[in-house]
């Protein structure tokens, strides 16, 4: 068996990746990325940039994408727990407007691969979370796009607890629905 388990999602192109964890009384070791292992599972992308963010409970970042310079993202959580979501925005796709979500945490060590052509976002479930991701293209601020996180046409079932306020950036508060992309 390889060092990673790759599970395709219901939407073509999305994958949940579970690295093998080697643990003992000292702690653990995990290989989070190995080009050969990924390629042997059909994931032969090249990463050019790594990013990391820290957020508090209730923060929702997204749904973001790059218009002319789309980015594939390999995302994971280093500390805490998030609900991570990808929305298919590939024109002509049979699953256009559909979403997939997965809980990523420091405990489950799952990763999520979101290819080019998807809007991406996450919601912080723990008191704080440190989120890390590798990108297949560089970030271009002038090329940024986004979709409203609670667009009823998409219908994402965010696990927002009663009494927890969703915290959005000013930019994310002004986003429009998926229809604005058509």
Q: If you had to describe this structure to a student in words, what would you say it looks like?
A:
By secondary structure, the protein is mostly beta strands. It is 5% helix and 42% strand. The protein has two helices and 13 strands, in the order ββββαβββββββββα. The protein has helices at residues 35-40, 170-173; strands spanning 4-8, 15-19, 21-24, 27-30, 49-56, 60-66, 73-79, 81-88, 99-105, 111-114, 118-124, 128-135, 144-146. The strands form three sheets. A six-stranded antiparallel beta sheet has the order 1-2-10-7-12-5, with no helix packed on it. A five-stranded antiparallel beta sheet has the order 9-8-11-6-13, with no helix packed on it. Strand 3 (21-24) and strand 4 form a beta hairpin. The longest helix is centred in the N-terminal third of the chain and has 6 residues, at 35-40. The chain is globular and about 50 Å long. The model has no long low-confidence stretch (mean pLDDT 96).
């Amino acid at each position: 068996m390889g060092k990673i388990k790759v599970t395709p999602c219901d939407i073509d192109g999305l994958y949940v990746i579970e690295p093998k964890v080697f643990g003992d009384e000292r702690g653990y070791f995990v290989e989070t990325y190995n080009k050969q292992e990924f390629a042997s599972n059909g994931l032969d992308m090249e990463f050019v940039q790594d990013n990391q963010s820290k957020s508090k409970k209730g923060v929702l970042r997204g749904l973001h994408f790059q218009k002319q310079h789309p980015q594939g993202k390999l995302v994971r959580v280093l500390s805490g727990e998030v609900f991570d979501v990808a929305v298919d925005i590939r024109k002509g796709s049979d699953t256009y407007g559909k979403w997939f979500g997965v809980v990523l945490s420091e405990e489950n060590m799952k990763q999520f691969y979101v290819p080019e052509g998807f809007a991406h976002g996450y919601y912080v479930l723990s008191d704080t979370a440190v989120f890390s991701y590798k990108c297949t293209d560089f970030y271009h601020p002038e090329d940024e796009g986004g979709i409203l996180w609670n667009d009823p046409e998409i219908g994402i079932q965010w696990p927002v607890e009663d009494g927890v306020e969703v915290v959005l950036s000013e930019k994310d508060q002004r986003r429009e629905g998926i229809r604005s992309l058509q």
